[in-house]
Design brief:
The protein is an alpha/beta fold. It contains 5 helices and 9 strands, in the order βαββαβαββαβββα.
Length: 199
């Protein structure tokens, strides 16, 4: 099937900060990290920082400070390592319970303030920031739905249904279902030229 020619996912930021993309999903192992890899590979001409936000299960109750670790190893067995291998300039793992999500959001905004684009793997971040684009990934073979997935799904600009064949039916706001390869979906997200970040 041909792609819809009328999808409009224009950026909503004012151009002074990097773009913010969020990739969420209804459960673990549905293809969120793979989706981010596709996006980074397709947009290799831009500067991106990738952030994985996960619940910090061992944090004391009520803690309001996320644990932030910068990845340096391109380990294909870790999510942050996969981000780096796909072309992210920097990658971070942020462990944040719900009480620390406001601080985690502030960290993401501090990255954007440097001019770099940021892509975040998280459902919960959409309740604290307004992304330029939200991609939500569903694997119909997995019955589990996290409670945090519903606000992210409601905010989604693109919904991707993963399949074993690697071609997905995608739904975008105001559009009917259409067939896309993952990279075709992602190249329709907003593009903006950004200067190389100074190191």
């Amino acid at each position: 099937m041909s792609r819809s020619p009328t999808i409009d996912l224009s950026p909503v930021n004012d151009g002074t900060r990097g773009l913010l993309f969020v990739v969420g999903g209804h459960s673990r192992r549905v293809g969120k990290t793979t989706t981010i890899e596709h996006l980074l590979l397709e947009r290799h001409d831009e500067t991106w920082t990738a952030v994985k936000i996960s619940a910090h299960r061992h944090a004391p109750e009520g803690v309001a400070t996320p644990l932030i670790e910068q990845a340096v190893d391109h380990d294909p067995e870790t999510q942050t390592g996969r981000y780096l291998r796909a072309g992210a300039r920097h990658a971070f793992l942020v462990r944040a319970p719900d009480a620390a999500m406001r601080e985690a959001a502030a960290f993401v905004e501090s990255l954007r303030a440097t001019g770099t684009n940021v892509i975040v793997e998280s459902n919960r971040i959409v309740e604290h920031l307004v992304p330029d684009a939200v991609v939500f990934v569903i694997d119909p073979r997995i019955a589990d739905w996290k409670p945090s997935s519903y606000p992210c799904l409601a905010a989604a600009d693109v919904v991707i249904y993963t399949s074993r064949a690697g071609v997905v039916p995608a739904r975008t706001r105001g559009q009917h279902h259409a067939m896309y390869a993952p990279q075709q979906v992602l190249t329709r997200l907003p593009r903006r030229a950004v200067a190389e970040a100074r190191t």
